[in-house]
Design goal:
This protein is an alpha/beta fold. 56% of the residues lie in helices and 17% in strands. It has an 8-stranded mixed beta sheet with strand order 7-1-4-3-2-6-5-8, with no helix packed on it. A hairpin with a 2-residue loop joins strand 2 (54-57) and strand 3 (60-70).
Length: 303
């Protein structure tokens, strides 16, 4: 029992070493209790892929990236080694893809395993090299689409500039610009004339208008000062007097207006005078021998 304490310390150190070893692999995402196969892929650009990046099959994590080695003397400079679960069998139609891992720009490996092809296909063994491809991410697609649209917009702007230059060089446009310039000069001259008229004649017009307004005020004041009510009263009194005269049957006007027999006599007298005038015009010789001073009597004496 002399070395019992030393043995306990050694066992404790060994246990701590095992815990550290398994803990590091656990933190790396490696399951040391599961056997895994390793496969290799060659890439021209890993686009930010790192070791311990996840490996997916149809969206399910089946392994991780073990190592990334590079040799820039080759076209496919990066050699990526992945490890996946042993129970996943890869046929010769399998493929290793470099894809985005989320929206934050991370990268991952996706192994494409076509369904229903294992029965008639060659099976990849651990350590074999798989064909690879790079799948553009969302940001890359947006950048490429944006760049393409910007290129199209620049092309359209160039074409527009060419057309504008052609239109500027056209003689009709030059004539139009010349006409616009003449119109602007005419408008400037008209504005100067209007300003001159406003400066020279407008004060006189304003003074005349002021005098007219003053006269109108005087007329209105005279009308207001006049005794309109008295004038109207006198007019009413005059009308009443005329009406009373016309309605009096004993007066001259009343008799003329109301005596029907007098009206008939006057009418018959006018008719007789009218017949006399007509006969005088028709037989003027009948009235030649008559005289207002007794001409007919002198004719009888001579006989």
């Amino acid at each position: 029992m002399k070395y019992a304490r030393e043995i306990k310390v050694a066992i404790l150190v060994i246990l701590c070493g095992c815990l550290v070893y398994f803990g590091l692999y656990f933190l790396k995402g490696v399951n040391i209790f599961t056997q895994e196969y390793q496969y290799i892929g060659l890439f021209e650009n890993v686009a930010g892929l790192t070791e311990q990046a996840p490996v997916y099959v149809r969206g399910y994590k089946v392994g991780q990236v073990d190592r990334i080695q590079y040799d820039f003397t080759k076209s496919q400079a990066f050699t990526v080694t992945i490890s996946i679960h042993k129970d996943i069998v890869l046929s010769d139609s399998a493929q290793m893809r470099l894809v985005d891992d989320g929206l934050l720009g991370g990268k991952a490996i996706e192994v494409v395993v076509p369904a229903g092809e294992l029965a008639h296909s060659t099976i990849y063994a651990s350590g074999d090299t798989l064909p690879t491809t790079i799948v553009p991410g969302l940001l890359t697609s947006l950048q490429e689409g944006l760049i393409a649209k910007v290129d199209d917009a620049i092309s359209n702007i160039d074409a527009l500039v060419v057309k504008v230059n052609q239109q500027i060089g056209d003689s009709s446009l030059q004539q139009t610009l010349s006409n616009v310039e003449h119109m602007s000069a005419d408008l400037s001259a008209s504005a100067r004339d209007i300003k001159k008229v406003a400066h020279d004649q407008l004060p006189g017009m304003v003074s005349n208008a002021d005098s007219l307004l003053a006269d109108a005020k005087v007329v209105v004041r005279d009308i207001q000062d006049a005794n309109l009510s008295g004038t109207v009263a006198r007019i009413d009194l005059t009308l009443d007097t005329v009406q009373s005269i016309l309605t009096q049957k004993d007066g001259t006007l009343g008799l003329l207006l109301n005596d029907k027999q007098l009206y008939q006599h006057v009418d018959s007298t006018i008719v007789s005078l009218d017949h006399l005038v007509v006969d005088l015009k028709a037989n003027p010789k009948r009235y030649v021998h008559f005289s207002l001073f007794g001409g007919k009597d002198k004719e009888k004496k001579s006989k």
